[in-house]
Amino acid sequence: MGVPDFTILARREQAPDLDPPFYEWVFPDGSRAAQFYRMPSGYLLRFPGLADFEVAEEGSRISCFPAPGVDDATPHHLFQSQVLPVLLGNRGRYVFHGGAVEIGESAVVFLGQSGRGKSTLVASFASSGHRLLVDDGLMLEPCDDGFQVAPGHPSVRLWSDSEKILSKSGVERAAALHFTTKTRFLAGSGLAYCDQPRPLRVAYFLGDGGAQETVFRKLSKAETLMGWAKNSFLLDVEDPAIVASHFKRIAALTDALVGYELDYPRRLDELGRVRKAIVEHATSEGATS
User: Fold this and answer.
1) Residues paired with 121 in a beta bridge
2) What CA–CA distance (Å, rounded) separates 126 from 134?
3) In angstroms, what is the C-alpha Rg of the chain?
4) pLDDT at 162
């Protein structure tokens, strides 16, 4: 099944009297990023104050109703970066909250929920010559030797406190979007980008930033499995058949790849040392055994 038919319809107020959602995405500050509802004809994905997306049960059609006052670009970006990934996850694709860069001729991925520093780390690598593969919406594809990382959108989105990583490099900024205060930087001369799939070498699950130095801890298979599960894009997390199928896929991923917890000081002046440690670890024999 290909990309669903996506239509943007007339703006409308978001109805306040819906039943409680069966699932939510929550920002680090506790505010709601997205709410998931079951409807008679499928699903409703609500981005509060921004747009409602009605998804037909079979996933072939998606209708978007922007909230009044939302700019024209926001529905398209929400569809590409949020709605489509959860739909693809429901269809059996490997899609995760993670970013990836090219180190050597392989892909190294960083996974973690919002606020863990994925984009800052990816931008730091990409502005230092290690090509960007994807900032978020990490998509993996099975291949002959395991898994490969598919290239994503050639851009990185950063919070204001991390913008200085790229601002001195003259990286082009995209137009501001209604739904986020992050700035989107476009790939180019100051932000290297890889437009070809790369074999996945190692996965790092980001810690909470409490470490005083860069620390790697090899995860057990059970921990790695749960790491992939917690960072999955999945539309219906309560459908037993979908969840069982998804866990079967990520179990195969866990068997094929070693996972590590990575923690490091969340200070911009430490990023050079953090990059060096990651490159050394990712290219060592120990990182894949």
Assistant:
1) none
2) 10
3) 19
4) 80
Give the tokens for residue 200.
Answer: 């996945």
Pairing of strands 215-218, 259-263: antiparallel
**CA 87 – CA 145 distance, rounded (Å):** 26
Structure tokens at 108: 């190294």
Distance CA 155, CA 211 (A): 29
CA distance 3 to 11: 23
Q: What is the dihedral of CA 53, 57, 61, 64, to 10 degrees?
A: -10
Q: How far is CA 62 from CA 23, 72, 103, in A?
A: 19, 17, 37
Cβ contacts of 160 within 8 Å, gap of 6 or more: 181, 183
Averaged in consecutive runs of 10 residues, what is the pLDDT profile of the chain (289 residues)?
Answer: 84 89 87 92 94 90 94 88 90 94 96 88 92 94 93 85 71 70 80 94 94 96 96 91 94 94 93 95 73
Paired strand residues for 173: 185
Look at residue 178 in the predicted model and tell me its pLDDT: 62
Positive or negative, the Cα torsion across 133, 232, 220, 264? positive
Specify the DSSP class assigned to residue 269.
G
Task: For domain 95-288, give the CATH number.
Answer: 3.40.50
pTM of the entire structure?
A: 0.88
